[in-house]
Structures are given as C-alpha cells and as structure tokens.
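Worked Example 4.2. Consider the chain below.
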Amino acid sequence: MSAADRIVAAEVLLTSPGRNYVTLKVTTADGLTGWGDATLNGRELAVAAYLREHLCPQLVGRDPARIEDTWQYLYRGAYWRRGPVTMTAVGAVDLALWDIKGKTAGLPVYQLLGGAVRDRVRAYTHATGWETAQLCDAVDAVRERGFTAVRVQSGVPGLDSVYGVGRGPGYEPAGRGTVPAEEVWDTAAYLRHVPGVLAEVRAHAGPELALLHDAHHRLTPIEAARLGKAVEPADLYWLEDVTPAENPDVLRRVRAHATVPLAIGEVFSTLWEFQQLITEQLIDHARAAVTHSGGISALRRLAALADVWQVKVSPHGPSDVSPIAMAASLHLALATPNHGIQEYMGYPEQAHEVFRHAWTCTGGHLHPGDAPGLGVDVDEALAARHDYEPALLPVARRRDGSMTDW
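Applying the procedure from the previous section yields the following structure tokens:
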C-alpha cells in the first residue's frame, strides 16, 4: 500500500433535515471521499460515539481497498461484538469503503458485485388510514403513483394510537424530545378488527395489487397463528413481524396453521440471528437493513445463505435510514438474484437536498443509477444548518399498564 492509498481521516456528521441522520465520511490520501450511513433511530448518539471514539481512530492509515479485511478487523477485533450499535457502526464503514472502491474503479457499486441481474428494483410503499375508507383512498393514491405493492395499516376501534398509522396526513413515529411517548395497546381488539380491514382492502383493490401488513412484533405465537390463518383470504404478499423473533422456534406454530408468507428481521443485526429462520424455512423474506446488519459485505453473505433455502432478501427501508443506505441497498438489490422487494417509505424534501443521490424512484420501481460508487454526495454546508434534535420511538403498554413490544 502506498501512502497515496491510505485512509487519512474518518469523521462523523450529525444532521436533522426533517429527521435525524448519522453519516460517516472517510477520506483517502488521494482525495477520494466515501460516505456511510450510521443512523440508528432513537440511538443515534450511541452509534456516533462508537464511531468517533472507537472505530474512526482505527481506520486512519488503513488501506481502503481491503474492504473484507476491514470488516473482519472491526467485527472480530472487538471482543464485545454484535448488537445494533456495533453493527450499524461497522455497516457505515463498510458502505463508505464500497463507495471509495467504486469511485476508484469509476464504476457503480452494483457492477463490482457482479453486475445487474434485473433492470429495476420493485418497491413497496406505505398506505395508511384510520378508517377503512381512508385506507382504500390511500391505496388508490399509491397505485396512481405506479406502485404495484403497498403496505396497509389501519386504526383499531378503542385505541387512540396504532403503529403504522396516524390520525392526520402522513405518519412519523419518532417524537422530538428525550422521553418517549407511551401508547396503549390491545391485542384482542387488533385481532378482531384487522382481518376484516385487510379483506375489505383486497376486495377494493382487486387481485393484482400486492398487499403487505406489519403486526410489529406484538403477538404471542398462538395469536400470530390465529392472525396468519385469519388473513389468508386477503392473499397477502407477506405478513411482517407477527411475533418477537428472538425465539425462532415459535414460528413453527405459525407455519403449522397458516400459509401466509412471513417477513421478519428488521431489528436483527447479524447473519447468525437469521440462520435458523432461513435454514428451517421459517420465513419467506429476510428483512435486514443494509446499514444495521453490517453493510453490503454482511448482507451479501446473508443473501447467499438465504438463496440456498429459497428465502428472499427484502431489506428494511424506512425514512430513518438515510439516502446513503437506500443507495447501498439498491446496488445490492440490482445484483442479488434472490432479492424480493425493497421498502421505500420516502424522505423529507430537506433530506433529498442534503443527500444528493443518483438513485431514482419511478413508477413504483427503484434504480441506484450509474454514478461511480454509491452515487450519493453530501452537502456538508447544508447539513450543518440542520441541527440534531433528540427524537425517540414510542413505547407501548397493555391496558393493565404492563409493558409490551412497540
């Protein structure tokens, strides 16, 4: 390695153009810049500190071309490893190095991953409505934008707040402040109401539109099985996060009672958390986010394992992973045979201005573009005008006051 090839600086940027993002900037001696996303919604400062205090000093002087070696160094070199904070930080470094690799080669990252196996990446977005009629109108609006797949979430009678849907236009769960909002949850009310809503939406939308629904980790195994069986007539593309996935064995109960495809894994941070779910075919879609699960290098390994067992990789894509992470996810999707579908929640306009990107969303499909590297540039001056503000996701309690999963 010549002196011109080494990393000379690694910096962390915090910005809040509509929401909070943590960005890693890696600079080489020959002036190339690589960008990585290190956003972990509600725990942004923990990842920023992990990078600044631990990883950034270790990057200076390293060869940016040795992407896999650096990943192994950061992962295996930390005795206390895994977990979302560590893996988000490692993922940010990985994305930045792939960005540099592409810029060095003058090629988009997907070309370095073996080239495109598809022309475009199918996406789904969100439709919400507190009442079923509002939800159907939202589904129509999404379809008019060209999307062929949509996640649908509705209100529940008797509850004032429900994951995935707001009473007004739009939905943003993270609330500004240092103490999270507390929501009241009633599983029985949800199970009574949601199957009927999904049946009505299916009747309204017809058979062609792919419908998805997220239970958001809140059900016990038998409740998840009941829901899976009840929604079969709605012919869902998938039912997401039906139960907390820390105990994969429980999904066997859901499989025994329902044939609805299952999607799980957005809260996972390593391949090993997916291993049993994939090898026993307990899920149909692995939902890992490219930034939270260790970057492109790690997600490639996950996709390779999943491909053997005919499981698709369908990455998490909310607005709380930055346009840098979206770019990385799209490069990987374009080059991955068993990619399923990409979530695309969209971004505040200010985020598009700060993170100028080559990727596009047209007619319900995404493409990473053909700019060298990841194809995202950060306007640092504009980013500096958007100060970080604490924001936290809600917590949830049952009607008796006990905590449950949000």
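The mean pLDDT is 96. The first helix runs from residue 44 to 59. Compare this with Example 4.1 before moving on.
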